[in-house]
Amino acid sequence: MDNTLTPEALLAGVRRTRLLAIVRGTDGAAAARAALAAMEEGFHYVEIALTTPGALEAISEVRAAAPAGSFVGAGTVLTKQDVDGVALAGGQFMVTPSLAPSIEEAAGRGFGVLAGALTPSEALEAMRRGATAVKLFPASIGGPGYLKALRDPFPEIPFIAVGGVGLDEAAGYWDAGAIAAGLGGPLFGDAASGGDLAPMRERARRFVTLAGGYDSQAGSGDRR
What we know:
- The protein contains 10 helices and 10 strands.
- The protein has helices spanning 7-17, 28-40, 55-65, 80-89, 102-108, 120-128, 143-151, 170-175, 185-188, 197-212; strands spanning 19-23, 45-49, 71-75, 93-95, 112-117, 133-136, 159-162, 180-183, 214-215, 219-223.
């Protein structure tokens, strides 16, 4: 099975599925189980935050067991050393919370990078450094209205809305032009810290159904 993932493929896939799952917890084994459960319910792009204890081992485990067409990356990638570790663990893309040195390092090695930014200057700088897309974080500070205003001067920058995005908010960000919504707590709850996977799976199915029924031409008012 070919599990390679170019930056171009990452961008196209995230744009198509409209979803990115963000696993952050207190237990690496639980994080791996939660990531795989999300994949089984239809999420194709899942990141495991390096702040999770045992994150690199979890990434390796998920990479080995991921369903065909699903990919695992690392979040909170900040340094060259982080990039080294993620690459060795088999991580397939990298996500940052800020304009970190890891952006150039990971991009230079051919990885897709979703780079954290909040302001117009940061978004432009992220792309200049080689980001595949900009992770608008924390999106909840300005909401969809802020994203729409940010996109006016930068219509070519692909934005992913992350931070405080739940089932009730996702379509608003898609309407404002986000190519995807990044889902952490509103999707996983406590599953990545050893909590019950059953309610997480149900939320995952609801997110996948919402994204699958979204019509970008008609906006959030139309569900196929």
